[in-house]
Amino acid sequence: MADDKLSVQILEGARPGEKVMVLVGVLNAETAFQFRDSVRQNESAMLVIDMSGVRYVDSSGLGVLIGTYVSFERNCRRLLLAGLNDRTWDLFRTCRIEDVFTRYPTAADAERTMPIFGVGPRTGSAPRHAD
């Protein structure tokens, strides 16, 4: 069904070492592997996932986001989420993982939180919920 598809586009970020992954569609059991494979091909130090075009996330989609976050943390990389709609954020709250991710209104807002000279360790200066 066309409504159950996910479009993934990877754009250059504002600075070297940064990428923006733009998702459009749904992140569910049918599209989670596509998303995971796209993330695995990306080797940037910081990845902003722009989810403003994501209509729906199910438990499989949530699981792949958590797995991506863990992988990035383990490899000293940053993963930031931007443009999540309230319905998706409510799923994060229901699963009690809203404190794991930092949520930004837009990809540009997420990119602005990073140090100018590359991606360093977290300093605690960025808010956990920027919305």
Major beta sheet, specifics?
Answer: 5 strands, mixed
End-to-end gap? 33 Å
Strand content: 25-35%
Count of alpha and pi helical runs: 4
- What name goes with the CATH superfamily? STAS domain
Low-confidence stretches: 117-129
What is the helix fraction of residues, given as a range?
25-40%
Structural class: alpha/beta
Number of domains: 1
Task: Write up what this structure looks like.
It is a single chain. The chain has 131 residues and is α/β, with parallel strands linked by helices. Residues 117-129 have low confidence and may be disordered. Helices cover 31% and strands 27% of the residues. The longest helix has 16 residues, at 59-74. A 5-stranded mixed β-sheet has the order 1-2-3-4-5. It has a single domain (2-112), classed as 2-Layer Sandwich (Transcription Regulator spoIIAA), CATH 3.30.750.24. It has 4 helices and 5 strands; from the N terminus they run ββαβαβαβα.
